[in-house]
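Hi R.,

Here's the chain you asked about this morning:
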Amino acid sequence: MSTTAVPEVAVTAVDEGFWTRVRKTGAVLLGLGVLATVLFGALATGQQARFTLSETEGGAALEINGTVGAILFGIIAAAAGAALLAGVPKRWFTLVLGVGLVAFVLSFLCWQVSAAPEGRNFMPLVNIVRGTFILALPLIFGALAGVLCERSGVVNVAIEGQLLMGAFSGALFGSISGSVWVGLVAAAIGGALISLLLAVFAIRYLVDQVVMGIVLNLLAVGVTGFLYERLMQTDATKYNSAPRFSNWEIPLLKDIPLIGPALFRGNIFLYVGLLLVLVVHIALFRTRWGLRTRSVGEHPTAADTLGVKVLRLRYRNVIMAGLVAGVGGASYTLALYSFTKNMIGGKGFIALAALIFGRWSPTGALLAALFFGFADQLATYLGAIGSSIPSQFLAMLPYLATILAVAGLVGKVRAPAADGKPYIKG
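And here is the predicted structure, written out as tokens:
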């Protein structure tokens, strides 16, 4: 009996070519560095750019000549880009990229601060840090809601509606009862109701999860807008004057320079948001619930064969996500503003971007939310100092940062394998 010899086929690694993701990023960063060095350096003035460590112009400050700073930090950004372009080891990619981006931002700030009118050519870092956290709060809660859902295999595009319903419920029931705590509970329930609808239609009736999320966002806008016009506009004192949570100061910690006044003189939402990030991270990666949640999001069939109640776990996690997002919505109406129609203004979608940018991790989502919060706060600051940049561009800065982060900086990411795929028990 004859046999046919099968020749061995040599398997070689796929040649990625010269233009890897690291080198492409390096080329972009090099271009930004050159732009900062030439353009920002030319537009900056010889005035001192002051970065004060307080809330005002006085006190300790970091100072640098505007032109020198813009050029120096531009060169640093270009050098970081050149290092990436030369092909630094992947383990150094994040560090070098971070240094380059921070240097680019500092070059830009040296230009803006030094060119500001006399008396406004300073940046109060305490206010910037505090504003960053305040503006990032709804994003933190929204991104955590996304983590809880999508790690379970359910796409949560309805974050916008959950935040909006939470803001509305907190304002309405907080005003009627005169209690911030009643308003907070109502806000959590309002967000959970939107999540419950998402869970029922996506898990029970297998409706497309993305489409369902968009429908729920429109439903929240319609319901809250209708009730706002019928109740809150007709009698704002009774229905839209919820009490506010006061700031809680933590002794000793509040006196830490720069960080203390920004982090440890905040309201309950700041402390709860940071605590939730820690709790969800530990629970997701260190507990049996977290292991089951991740297994359901990756391979629900295998999880089912091991005795995990897949549908029950998804229901529970989606509703839990709504509770979290509802509290995030209350951070608007029980701490900062009165309710207005569609007051979330797209923050739910930025929270979804923060979720992707943070690679479906609670801590990653926190850092991404702070990045977007800083972009928002920077736009506010530049408007206050009379920046020459058009106000329309400043208004779109947070959304531009969102697009750039998700499209360019995040690189290749992989969502949980079963994300958005309905599970039908065999």
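One quick note: Confidence is low (pLDDT under 50) at residues 1-15.

Cheers,
M.
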